[in-house]
Specification:
The structure is a homodimer of 263-residue chains. With 263 residues, chain A is of the alpha+beta class. The first copy, chain A, folds into two domains: 135 residues, PSTPO5379-like (3-Layer(aba) Sandwich), CATH 3.40.1640; 104 residues, PSTPO5379-like domain (PSTPO5379-like fold), CATH 3.30.2040.10. Chain A has six helices and eleven strands. In chain A, strands 1, 2, 3, 4, 5, 10 and 11 form a seven-stranded antiparallel β-sheet that branches. A four-stranded antiparallel β-sheet of chain A has the order 6-7-9-8, covered by helices on one side. In chain A, a hairpin with a 2-residue loop joins strand 3 and strand 4. In chain A, helix 3 crosses helix 5. Chain A is globular and about 50 Å long. The two termini of chain A are 32 Å apart. At the A-B interface, helix 2 of A face helix 2 of B.
């Protein structure tokens, strides 16, 4: 999925490609630019969503909020949140009703849009440290799973924690933890290392979102909190309308990854 | 202000003293327990306040939110947010109208309460490292100042950044930065070191909140973002009702300081 040219694009150029209709997972795109999950909800639910994020900061680290009527911000300067993501999902009453390339016709003036950090952001420093990323090696989307861990509820919103999984060679797990923990704004340290059953995941070959990847001998499955978590809450809590990115098809922001690094 | 006994109290015991009517600044109280700023606003303003906090995380780090009708939480187990703070402020249409010991008679069912980290929390690790705290030496409240720096606005809320000031010996400034930066949940690293004029502060002897302290020869004034910032936004943005702690008179929570330390 990484083409020879897309790591030389600016964030705005990448958004332009997606606005033009390109539909692809964004892992590996525009190294150094923070990537974001997108969730737009009617204004009446905005407090519940922001409170859900505050109570579940590993799954929902807020990078920015577009208020009702606002279509861009310093995170997507000159962009349009309705068109600049490679693929969207539209939920009505909690049911997925469309997966379009843009959401201009679904948009409403009262939608408040939450931009939540995505773990694709720390894949760049992981790769720089020589840690292999299996889904990139295979050219597929990262696998994501619903877990049996419940999020802290907030108002009308409740649901399970969703995680992304990356197999990591056993001798690099410590490095993967150390490096990702420096990026709390894009999910930070893993929530679990090893046995998927402890998270209630029965079969790593059957992810709930994205594509399956194998776990090579001598590697461990490592699980990070995932920004699809609020989509799972939407499916459970059934707001009249919700619009999100399609899993793995992220907003590429103007925020440099380096600005998210602590300490 | 620190008595021989109050550093042996549990957070719940300290809250009990304040519920019983004791009125005192809380710097130095219950070492190891996180202290919190309090701001309660009508539910209709709750999203604006949470968004204001998200956009101004150094001034408004959210430790917890009590939803409408909720009077305690795991941050003040068995407590009552209307009585357990040493002193409160009541604002109507942005004007300070009362500074009572409890706010039972002012309370409304639709108030949402925000608990924001307070820098008194990292005073304990500063002191443990041998860094002198002038306001504790003098037995007074910490001095706080409005600055000419503006916060990022959110909906109806806007206002200036408010800072607390601690003079620090020049050879310990680096340590004070290093240690406080490990506690982003209670304001983290300073926003400014040195010349107060750069923040628009004319006279260190005339704080806007709290008490003046001198800056001894060879010490520098060091400024941290302060949780009184949303009170300044309330004064400017004039919601019909707002209830807060009185500056320096904080909620002592059950959250251990150690849980706030990163990395």
């Amino acid at each position: 999925m990484t083409t020879p040219t897309n790591d030389r694009l600016s964030p705005a150029q990448a958004r332009g490609r997606f606005r033009g209709g390109l539909r692809t997972p964004t892992s590996g795109w525009v190294p150094g630019a923070a990537q974001a999950n997108v969730l737009a909800l009617p204004r009446g639910m905005a407090f519940d969503m922001l409170l859900f994020a505050q109570r579940n900061p590993k799954a929902c680290p807020v990078l920015g909020v577009l208020e009702a009527g606002q279509l861009d911000s310093e995170l997507l300067a000159g962009g349009d949140i309705r068109t600049d993501v490679p693929a969207y999902r539209v939920y009505r009453d909690g049911a997925l009703v469309a997966e379009p390339d843009d959401v201009v016709e679904h948009w409403r003036e009262d939608l408040v849009t939450f931009l939540l950090g995505c773990s694709f952001t720390f894949e760049t420093p992981l790769r720089r440290a020589g840690i292999p990323l299996r889904h990139q090696q295979l050219g597929v989307n990262v696998p994501m799973f619903r877990t049996t861990r419940r999020c802290a509820p907030a108002g009308t919103l409740s649901g399970p924690l969703v995680v992304s999984m990356r197999p990591i060679p056993a001798d690099r797990v410590a490095d993967a933890v150390r490096i990702s923990s420096r990026f709390p704004g894009v999910h930070g340290a893993p929530v679990h290392v090893g046995d998927p059953a402890a998270l209630g995941i029965g079969d790593l070959a059957a992810p709930d979102f994205g594509d399956a990847v194998d776990v090579p001998d001598g590697w461990l499955p490592v699980f990070w909190a995932c920004g699809v978590t609020p989509q799972a809450a939407v499916m459970e809590s059934r707001p009249e309308l919700a619009i999100s990115h399609a899993p793995g098809h992220m907003l590429i922001t103007d925020l440099p990854e380096a600005k998210l690094q602590v300490p």
